[in-house]
Amino acid sequence: MKRVIMSLVSLGTAIGILLGGTHIANASPSYDQEVTATAKHFVGSPFKWGGTTPKGFDASGYTQYVYKHSAVNMNLPRTSAEQYKTGTAVKKENLKQGDIVFFKTDGKKVSFSGIYLGNSEFVGATSKGVRIQSLKTKYWKDAYAGAKRVLK
């Protein structure tokens, strides 16, 4: 009986390997990777004030669209100011892929949001379209308002 059980276990292991069981360790991409991959996909899309689709995005419309249409399938508020009220605050030195970065580009209130990619870069819908930007440039450094983590 012991011999039969061992044979069945060996057979099951062999079948698992043949059917792709060796790929189990390669888990699907994490939500932060899914969000950043989706975000990068739309680089080059045009800007449109009030835009919420790939035919034309504004900053918060872009962030909202990416989170909704990635594997995360998360609904974010429509404006950057409303998005800033969601999630958990993150210090700049603790940013992770998929965090939402916020800026005061129009006075004293949060008026722009983008998605952090890593290495001090984020992607957002600027007046020149969806582009990858550096947090280290003077403009974005001066306008930086904070970041939020909405992914777990």
TrEMBL record:
A Pfam family matched in the record: NLPC_P60
Superkingdom, natural source: Bacteria
GO biological process: proteolysis
PROSITE patterns: NLPC_P60
Residue span, NlpC/P60 domain: 29-151
GO MF entries: cysteine-type peptidase activity
Entries under SUPFAM superfamilies matching the protein: Cysteine proteinases
Signal peptide bounds: 1-27
Keyword Protease: yes
Keywords for the protein's UniProt record, in alphabetical order: Hydrolase, Protease, Signal, Thiol protease
InterPro entries named among the record's database cross-references: NLP_P60_dom, Papain-like_cys_pep_sf, Peptidase_C40
Family statement drawn from the similarity comment of this UniProt entry: Belongs to the peptidase C40 family.
Protein name in UniProt: C40 family peptidase
Organism expressing this protein natively: Fictibacillus marinisediminis
